[in-house]
Model the fold of this input.
Amino acid sequence: MEGRQEHLFDLLIERYPQLSVCGESIRQAYDLIEAAYQNGRKLLVSGNGGSASDSEHIVGELMKEFRLKRKIYANQVEELKRIDQEMGTVLAENLQGALPAISLTGHSSLTTAFMNDSLPELVFAQQINGYGKPGDIYLGISTSGNSKNILYAAITAKARGLKVIGLTGMHRSRLMDFADVCICVPETETYKVQELHLPVYHCLCMMLEDKFFDGV
Done:
């Protein structure tokens, strides 16, 4: 982490002091995702119920502007205008920089077809089998850390050379066995765990945006 990311992390702990117990795992998760993006890789995310909504929320913060303006790079602007001056100018003025991220909780035709034809618990694992490349990150969100579809996805991710990050509650869980880093927020009831997941992933998204788009 650099100074600006440290500041954002400190603000998180200042606002949510209970998260200090998982501060080191938040730092480690950030470092893994930053390294993946530095190397041109992507983030795959999934969860169930409220955590499925969190998966979509994370992708929304990464794939477009969150807190900072994200102008696209000059060489991209030039190429867009070279292809078509008028339409390229519109694109250059309106496209936003993005950090590639995919939520595995959508894609209704794919997921319903797979769940009908095969084991429903493997629906996220199947998508990782298709999307995942070595060096990518899989972020599995599970308040219990024991959701079977998240565990199968984590195992598949490890087998394909992805790094695995877990976002769970405080109890010991199976996801901890497969994750390279597991952020275990200090709550046990589902809604309370989810209430602490949001500031954690907002902080990660802010730090990543600051790293890759500050001054762009």
In short: Residues 24 and 183 are 9 Å apart (CA to CA).
